[in-house]
Design goal:
mainly alpha; 80% helix; 0% strand; globular
Length: 86
Amino acid sequence: MNKHIELVKKWLAENDSVSQTELHDNRDSAYQAFNAADANISSNNYLRELAAAEAAAEAAADAADAAVAAAEVAESWVSLYEDITK
Protein backbone atom coordinates (compact mmCIF):
# COMPACT_ATOMS: atom_id res chain seq x y z
CA MET A 1 0.00 0.00 0.00
CA ASN A 2 1.10 3.53 -0.69
CA LYS A 3 2.23 5.49 2.38
CA HIS A 4 0.52 8.64 1.13
CA ILE A 5 -2.80 6.83 0.80
CA GLU A 6 -2.38 5.26 4.23
CA LEU A 7 -2.03 8.68 5.84
CA VAL A 8 -5.07 10.00 3.97
CA LYS A 9 -7.10 6.95 5.04
CA LYS A 10 -6.00 7.48 8.65
CA TRP A 11 -7.12 11.10 8.44
CA LEU A 12 -10.45 10.12 6.84
CA ALA A 13 -11.12 7.65 9.63
CA GLU A 14 -10.21 10.11 12.41
CA ASN A 15 -9.60 13.71 11.40
CA ASP A 16 -7.77 14.58 14.61
CA SER A 17 -5.30 11.71 14.20
CA VAL A 18 -3.29 13.60 11.57
CA SER A 19 -2.20 17.22 11.87
CA GLN A 20 -2.50 19.82 9.14
CA THR A 21 1.28 19.89 8.94
CA GLU A 22 1.40 16.13 8.37
CA LEU A 23 -1.24 16.42 5.64
CA HIS A 24 0.64 19.23 3.91
CA ASP A 25 3.96 17.34 4.17
CA ASN A 26 2.22 14.22 2.82
CA ARG A 27 0.87 16.20 -0.14
CA ASP A 28 4.29 17.63 -0.92
CA SER A 29 5.98 14.24 -0.61
CA ALA A 30 3.39 12.57 -2.85
CA TYR A 31 3.82 15.32 -5.43
CA GLN A 32 7.60 14.86 -5.39
CA ALA A 33 7.24 11.07 -5.73
CA PHE A 34 4.96 11.50 -8.73
CA ASN A 35 7.33 13.94 -10.43
CA ALA A 36 10.34 11.68 -9.83
CA ALA A 37 8.50 8.65 -11.19
CA ASP A 38 7.17 10.60 -14.16
CA ALA A 39 10.73 11.51 -15.11
CA ASN A 40 12.10 7.97 -14.72
CA ILE A 41 9.35 5.42 -15.35
CA SER A 42 7.23 4.87 -18.43
CA SER A 43 4.67 2.54 -16.84
CA ASN A 44 1.22 4.07 -17.23
CA ASN A 45 -0.32 2.05 -14.40
CA TYR A 46 2.40 3.04 -11.96
CA LEU A 47 2.08 6.69 -12.89
CA ARG A 48 -1.70 6.51 -12.58
CA GLU A 49 -1.28 4.98 -9.12
CA LEU A 50 1.10 7.72 -8.05
CA ALA A 51 -1.12 10.42 -9.53
CA ALA A 52 -4.12 9.11 -7.60
CA ALA A 53 -2.06 8.98 -4.41
CA GLU A 54 -0.81 12.52 -4.97
CA ALA A 55 -4.34 13.75 -5.66
CA ALA A 56 -5.68 12.08 -2.51
CA ALA A 57 -2.90 13.62 -0.43
CA GLU A 58 -3.60 17.02 -1.94
CA ALA A 59 -7.34 16.70 -1.32
CA ALA A 60 -6.71 15.75 2.30
CA ALA A 61 -4.38 18.71 2.81
CA ASP A 62 -6.96 21.00 1.22
CA ALA A 63 -9.67 19.51 3.41
CA ALA A 64 -7.63 20.30 6.50
CA ASP A 65 -7.62 23.89 5.34
CA ALA A 66 -11.20 24.11 4.09
CA ALA A 67 -13.01 21.73 6.50
CA VAL A 68 -14.77 18.44 6.00
CA ALA A 69 -16.39 19.17 2.62
CA ALA A 70 -13.20 18.20 0.78
CA ALA A 71 -13.05 14.87 2.63
CA GLU A 72 -15.44 13.48 0.03
CA VAL A 73 -12.93 14.40 -2.68
CA ALA A 74 -10.14 12.67 -0.74
CA GLU A 75 -12.32 9.57 -0.35
CA SER A 76 -12.99 9.47 -4.09
CA TRP A 77 -9.25 9.62 -4.87
CA VAL A 78 -8.52 6.90 -2.31
CA SER A 79 -11.19 4.78 -3.98
CA LEU A 80 -9.66 5.41 -7.41
CA TYR A 81 -6.22 4.48 -6.06
CA GLU A 82 -7.59 1.24 -4.63
CA ASP A 83 -9.32 0.40 -7.91
CA ILE A 84 -6.10 0.98 -9.87
CA THR A 85 -3.98 -1.13 -7.54
CA LYS A 86 -6.28 -4.17 -7.39
